[in-house]
Amino acid sequence: MKHVLVTGGSGFIGTNFIHYVHKNKPDWHIFNLDALTYAGNPANHSHLEDDPRYTFIHGNICDADLLTRLFDSHGFDGVFHFAAESHVDRSIAGPEVFLHTNVTGTFRLLEASLAHVRKNTEKPFRFVHVSTDEVYGSLGVDDPAFTETTPFDPSSPYSASKAASDHFVKAWYKTFGLPVVVTNCSNNYGPFQFPEKLIPLMVLNILDKKPLPVYGKGQNIRDWLYVADHCDALLRAFEKGESGQTYNIGGGVEKSNLEVVKTICELVDARTGRPDGSSRELITFVADRPGHDIRYAINPDKSFEKIGYRAGHSFEQALSATIDWYLENMDWVRSVQTGAYREWIKSHYET
Fold it and tell me: Which of 45, 67, 41 is nearest to 54 (CA)?
């Protein structure tokens, strides 16, 4: 039985990853370490509460003593490091927590992992650091997609903190020999995403007949990655990746924010019986965010060649499945829409 530590496993991607691994790796015991900040929801794993292959630990990755105790007690075979502050707008409003969690927290986890490896020199170990394509900065409309050798050029406090954490992880490989893999992914979407992000925000605002806030003219382009495909790629990186290497993970689907919003309008209208096109009238253009990158795009060639990853879901199918999940899980949605969440939406998107 492998003992695997997943940090931030009660957040969006971490939740989906734990569900994916629990289904596909029956010989893995998953330890979920999560601080349960605003986007972490322990109810995401309520069906695993009594499962002997799942253990939840409420704690912070910046707590060095806790990490030491966990590594000593459970002898982890690997780490999947998801825990991070991840919303660009929040990083603009309050950058310091991003420095603390994303940089200091990653440093603490690297130190605990290295101490563990040095105590268990004969035991295989792998540290997978989950990062973002935003570290590469912005592309022009006609620029070639990001590769693993694209220079870092972060634009926001969020992407700067993730870029710093990426450098720390690679340095712990080069200097100390810690067996690490770094993955940089494009925009994820799917079930359990906190409803401040674009797709769930639009779905829920349509249901409530609220304005659909779109930054600028909605022409910012993103590569959209279904979270289940991301989970598959991360598992492949753990099992097939080469230590010290970076693997870019994309969905192969570039769409502008406005295209995505219009598609969501069409799909939700069809599912709710509203007149076709009626929800498009809710689209409201708001002032653009500072330093808003124009375009992200991932070149997936290395991931395909080295770890055999290729996105398995079409955007249309996966977006439809995502919308269906939110419509069928409104109790979950309402449970995470706290007063603090509503104040955040009001202060940033409502005019």
Answer: 45
Whether the Cβ atoms of residue 166 and residue 295 lie closer than 8 Å to each other: no
Residue 241 lies in a domain: yes
Owning domain of residue 97: 2-189+224-252+291-312
The Cα 182–Cα 127 span in angstroms is: 8
Residue 332 lies in a domain: no
Residue with tokens 């495909």, as numbered in its chain: 229
> How far is the C-alpha of 294 from the C-alpha of 153, rounded, in Å?
13
How do residues 212-257 score in pLDDT, each as one tens digit?
999 999 999 999 999 999 999 999 999 999 999 999 999 999 999 9
All residues at 6 or more sequence positions from 193 whose CB lies less than 8 Å from its CB, including other chains: 12, 199, 200, 227
Which of 163, 198, 223 shows the shortest CA–CA distance to 286?
198
Q: DSSP letter for 288, please.
A: P
| Residue 257 near residue 197, CB atoms below 8 Å | no
Torsion of CA 174, 136, 6, 25, to 10 degrees: -90
In a domain, 282, yes or no: no
pLDDT digits (tens, 9 = 90+) for 1-16: 999 999 999 999 999 9
Please, which residues have CB within 8 angstroms of residue 211's CB and are 6 or more apart in sequence?
205, 282, 283, 284, 349, 350, 351
| Residues labelled as active-site residues | 133-134, 158
What's the whole-number average pLDDT of the chain?
A: 95
How far is the C-alpha of 303 from the C-alpha of 181, rounded, in Å? Answer: 12
**How far is CA 87 from each of CA 15, 194, 197, 345, rounded to the nearest angstrom?**
17, 10, 8, 13
For residue 302, the domain's CATH number is 3.40.50.720
CA distance 265 to 22: 34
pTM equals 0.94
Cα Rg of the chain (Å, integer) = 20
Neighbours of 310 (CB within 10 A): 11
Distance CA 329, CA 326 (A): 5
Structural domain count of the chain: 1
H or E stretch including 183?
Answer: strand 180-185
DSSP code for 241: P
Looking at the domain assignment, is residue 325 inside a domain? no
